[in-house]
Structures are given as structure tokens and as C-alpha cells.
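Input:
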Amino acid sequence: MDNYADILIVGAGVVGCALARELSRFQVSVAVVDRGWDVAEGASKANSGIVHAGYDAVPGSLKAKYNVEGANMFASLCDSLGVPYSRCGALVVGFSDEDRKTLELLLDRGLRNGVPDMKLLSGEEARALEPNLNPAVTCALLVPTSGIVSPYELTFALADDAALNGVSFHLGTAVSAVKPLPDGGFLAETDRGPWRCRIFLNCAGTSSAVFHNQLCKESPLKITYRRGQYYLLDRPKAPPFARTIFQCPSAMGKGVLVSPTVHGNVLLGPSAEDIDDPTDTAVTQSGLDSVMERVRMTWPAVSLRTNITNFSGIRAHEESGDFVIGPVPGCPGAYETVGIESPGLSSAPAIARDLAARIAEAEHLAPRAERVPYRKPLRPFREMTPEEQQEAIRKDPRYGTIVCRCEVITEAEIVAAAHRPVPAQTIDAVKRRTRAGMGRCQGGFCSPRVAAILSRETGIPLIDITKNGGESYLLTGTLTEEAERRNQA
Amino acid sequence: MTDLQHVDILIIGAGPAGLAAAISAREDGIESLLVLERESQPGGILRQCIHNGFGLHRFKEELTGPEYAQRDIDRARELNIPIECGVTVLSVSPDRIVTCVSPTFGLRRIEAGAVILAMGCRERPRGALCTPGTRCAGIYSAGTAQRFVNLEGFMPGKRVVILGSGDIGLIMARRMTLQGAKVLACVEIMPFSSGLNRNIVQCLQDYDIPLLLSHTVTDIRGKERLESVTVSQVDQHRRPIPGTEQVFSCDTLLLSVGLIPENELSEGAGVQISPATSGAVVSDSFETSVPGVFACGNVLHVHDLVDHVSNESFRAGHAAAAFVRNRSSQPVPQAFIQVKDGAGVRGAVPQKIRPDPVSPVTIMFRPADVYRNATAVVACGDKELLRKKAMIFTPGEMVALDLKPELLRGMASTDTLTVRIE
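Output:
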């Protein structure tokens, strides 16, 4: 028999998971499918992690509406879900009279979008706030309400809360096609068998236009895959910048930023280039070079000596330049969020709240009376006071074994990650949930140990543990097998 | 939080450096000492170095890593040196209070008369290189692969390219070959290898594994598991030369691109770190800039041979013992003779020498380049104190220059020694 859910959500990114969580408030079965082997496997894990204040979006656009509404939801949402978030503020810096005009335009847009407390600064005033800024900076827009968040941890928390409230997650499941059924509802073909549903919800990121166009041939949408490449630097002893530093935005996006992360690293990027393959998350020399060229304008003293890793994410840019959100035209029961690029992360909570309410009304969904309370992730050992650490080890001795020494992650935290409502099943899933392997040695020390713990906790044989699902296996065999193979040969 | 415990000497790390320091401190009569080790057994990285070639200098024998370590472990046991395993040190304060954690004891604070830092080093990861490409599975530091093969009995791959010709990479080229993997090439960005010559001969040449000097990996491909790497020749500025690309189809890339002394605890204690070695700045007694905190072995500077690590650490243990015994009677020297890197010298250790030393001082360093028929010189201004000739100096092999006390007699703390190759 086919798999069935009342609501099938395609895409376990931040928008799909936020919608899953909102829809778990109603008396319907909700299933989320994603081709990735974890939630947040697309743009949601590889972006700048900025909660934009909302000065950049064109007033009246969906981007402006949802950005400002969403950004206002972050503080309480992240607090209730235990997600790292900081309202660190931002500076948009300019180097010329032309840039100053752009900043004035941004200030005007921000005022019209309802962004509070912005201020135009001179170069000197900007450097007084951020002494590592380039002396060539002549003007800046101060945006105190800009924030930073851990985008993938937000997505995990949304997914966990949804899962606790009955949403089922089907990862490593790629949807190839969706079609309406004659008697109502939809059939989605996947590489793991078909799914039927009453309500189809397209949150498929880079693939979102594909499903839109299958359901709505009359007014097709076009997604451009826009890749952004980054550098992530080790936690410096003294952060070079307290705020996110943007340069003036261009047609290709918000430009290259230099930003602290919620975990105290320094993020540089992104580049912007349109590519053909929506899964090609490689970094390239030219892409990285273009990032550094721009970063040096903001931060002339930048050094890559402490670079930890490079990565890239792919933004789904819709031709219209705005989000496409709502019912799929001419296709009752189908809803979509298409073209969710920046400020998609900032907008996600508001998109989910709004669209879920619209779906509930249109589809006559009855609210659930009760909700399973959220279970926050295990408190990181490194953030505890010594007294709390002592108590934690007394209760669970696995808190006394440090597995990742760069980030000081304990065995207890890794075990807990493997038993979350949406459990970590891979090395990367553990890494993003606990930070084990996120540090300066990049898992050189801890990955064999994480693999062993994961194998023990999940029952997956060590030989089958993967970095990130699929064929991303760590090991190709045992020494004994290899010896036997050679004896036979 | 439990009560503050006290020991005279606390040693962080039970690898070859920590073991040697503990042994010499105990032999000097220090009763109260403690070695903390985060692994489940002492021995450090030697436990996974099952190849031979260790101990030629110290024991005049060719031992495997575990055999070499066992000699020190046995000696430490004879001396009843307490080694606590499964204990991770979280911090060292400038006044030598060490906070550590273990499943059995929880969080503990230990006040030490002297601390010896012997945490060793770690491998430089891919991120340090900013190599373009995907972030697929199958990319390991050579030491991680060595752990999988030698300690856990697993093969990390079948078709292997090795980037970097550091010793661990060379050793793993042979190890993977012996276990049935195909090692396609060892790729080195420099025009020379940073590994020991004997390893190039015994681990690459004996197995017909090409060593591509002045080459590097310029692209990494594979969506899930590694599928191929692109190798390009580089010019004298280490920039890839377009048109020289070769694609190697492989499932594994091992990185042997350098070791970094693991000094996060040292920095937390306020220890001054040398940019040249990435280890502590120390005096000839291996004392760091923080009084009573000593450093030895690969946490101080990355050695070529474990024999040198042991010898250095014996001296550090003696010095820490002397510090603990004499701290009330002897003034701490405030001024030192400075040791500077001259031409061709990278990271001379120690960086400072107490005036009028009573025992010989050994200056160790790595040559910055390959020099043939050259001379290492220690000079004070125009005055040459020591000359040591060699057929070849290479970055892969450390140079040790022994300065007798009489050579340094009468030198003032305002004097500077320069070490150079000419």
C-alpha cells in the first residue's frame, strides 16, 4: 500500500520544518520527505545565518513583509526552542558617495518596512564602533536589530518539536514527480515508493519550481541556482567585529559579509554565481578568491591562517525576485513556498505561521487540544558552570568523557543527539547538533570516536556509518576482509 | 566542586614526552607527581605507530612505536608514577591550577607546584589549505586513517592519493599498500619532502609510489564519497600552473600537510606562543613565560624523531624538579640571552637562555629549505660560538647544536645569539 499522510511536505529545510511544526497543531497527519539524509540539508545548513532586520527588501514585497514579521519572532522562538540567537546588530558599509546614496535608499526602505533605530554614520563613527574596519570606509548604516542565528540548529529544533507532536520525517527520500488525483488529493512519486496525500505542500527549495510547474503548467516559475561560497574561521580570542558587517547590496544579493557566528567563529562570504546543477555545493578557487577580494575591503587585516573550513550553499532565486507563497494557482489542496532565498531564514517563522493559518482555514483543519511540550537539546557541557558540570557528570558519567577536544563536546551530548526526536544518524548530523568535529581539527581526532558511539547508539554497524548518508561511507572494509580477498585472488 | 588537590608536579599527557618528563622528575626525587592522560591507555600517538624505526638513537635498537612507549610505561610503573587515563584537562590557570574532568571523578581542580605541558600536536586539516572542491567522505588526515587501520582494524579506502609528504603520510602510503589498497601518488607542494629520507625510500620508492614534488591537489570531486582529485604542478610561488592538471580517480585522499602543536591549554594559561614553532617560548630549562609551567615534546615544537622528544622531555622533567625544590631558595632569572632565527633557520628552541648556564644547552631547529654542503652557525654578533657542517640540511630533519656552558660563559642578558645556515 502507498504511504499516506493528510499533509505531505516536500522539503525539510527551515521553511518546511517550520510549517511542519505549525501544522502539527492541527488534527491531521503530517509527513515531511526530503532527499537529504538529515533535515536542513539544503540552503538551510549553508547560509550566512543572519536574521535580517528588513531594510533591504523592496517595500510592499513578500520579502519585506515576512522578513520584518519573521525577524520580530526570533527572540522568543529561539528562546523557547533553545536555539542560539544573538541580536548583535549590523553595519552596512560604503566606500563612496554612490554607496552613501545606496545607504540612504536602504535607510528609507527600512523606515518604510518598519525597521527601528537605524542610523547613518560617518566612516569615523563606524570605526569607533568597529575598529577593524577599513580606513577607506566613508559611511555606514547602523542597524541595531540585525541578528545572527544558527540556521541548522533552528531547523533541527523546529523539526524536533514537530516530530514530538506527531509529524513523521522520511529522509533520504527524493520526490521526482507530483500529480493531482482525479478524486482529490495528490500522488507523489519518490525513489522509495509513492506517497499519497490530501494536501501537498511544496517547500522544496532549489526544486520548488519543478513541483510548481508539474502542478501549474499555465504559469510556470523559474528558479536560478545561485551558489554562495564561504570561509569559516576558528574562534578568535578577540572577535574582530562585534556586528555583522555588510557591504552595499547588488543585484546578485546582499554582498559579501564578515560576521561573528553565534558560536564565536568568524564567517566570510558569500560569493554569488549562477550555476546549472542544484546539487553542486563545491567551492571553487575563483569563488573563494572573489570572497576574499571583497572581505579585504571590509577587513584589510583578515588572515586565513585560522580557516577551519570552506562550504557553499545554493539559494533558490525565483525570476520575479520575490517569494512565491500560498496556494498553487488552479490546484486546490496544493500550497507552495517557492524562491525562498535571502531573507528566507529571517522570514521562515512568519511564512510558516501565515501559510499554516491559511491552509488550516481553507482546508478546515481542527486544532489539537494538547501539545507535547518541547524537549530542549542537552545543555552543552562547555556552557555550564563548574558546579553544573560536576552535577551533570554525577548524574551521567558520560558527561565526563570529552570526545571532541576542540569544541569540548562530551559523550553524553553525542548520545543525546542520536536519540533526539529527529535522531542524528550520520557523522555530519552529530556534528551539526553537537559541534563535535566543528573545531580546528575538523574531526581528525573525534570522528572515529563519534562513529563508534553512533554505531553503538543506533545499532548501525560501524562499517555502515556514513559522513552524510547515501554512499558517503567512512570505511571500505575490515583488515580481515581485505586479507581474505587477497588470499582468494 | 571538590576540594583543591595538591601535587608537586603535574604532567599533562602520557605520550613519550609526558612519560619521559615524569620519569626524570621522579628520578630526581619528586614524590608527589601525577600524569593525566585523556586516552584510555598511556603511550600517546606511538600506540598507533606500529611500524619500526623508533629508538635508534636512544636505545640503539629498532623498535615499533608501541614497543618504544612500553619501555617508558614499564619504567614509570617501576617508579610507581601515577598515570590517570581517561582524564581530560579543561584548563590550566596562570597560577597552575589545573581543572580536569573524567567519568569517574567528575570535575577536579589540582594545584601544582609545577606543570609540564606534554599534550603533543595535531594534524593540519583540509580547511587549513582552502582546497577547492566538494566536502565528500573519504578525506582523512593521515593520522586518522592510521588510527582506523592500526587500532581499529578498518580500511578507510581502496584507491588512495596522499597530499603532503610528511612522515605520517609516507608511513600510511606503505601501510595502505600492504593492506591491499592502491596508492596512486604522494603529492607534495614543495620542491622537497618534509619527511625523513628513510621514509621516502622505504615507504614510497620500495613500493613504486610516485612522489610528485611541486604539485598539489587543486580540486576534489565526489558528491557522497570521494570520486577523484585533480593534481596540478605549481610554480616557484606555489601557484598551480594551468594546463598541468592530472585527474586521479580515487576514493580516498589522505592529508599529511603538517602538524600543529596543541597549545590551547597553554594559551589559556597565558603562555607566550612563538609564531615560528606554534609552541611555547621557552628558556633552556623548558620553562615557558609563565613561571613553573614547562613544555616539552611536540607541544613545544614538532620533532622528527621520538628519541629527540624523549631526550628533551627528560631535561624538562629535571628542570621542573629543580624548580619545585629550589623555588624558595633561588631567584627566578628575569633576563635571558635571546636566541634568534637567522638565515635558513625556522623556530630555534629554546628561544632564551639563562645567563651562565651550568649544563650544556641544545638548540634545535628545522632548516627552512634544503641546503647542501652547508654549515649551521651559532653566533653572538661577530663572534661565532659554534659551527656544524653537514652534507645536507633539510626541513624534514631537525638540527641539534650542543653549546657547552663554557661557550656561553660571561655572556650578558643583553646579548643575542643568532642561529643560521650558511
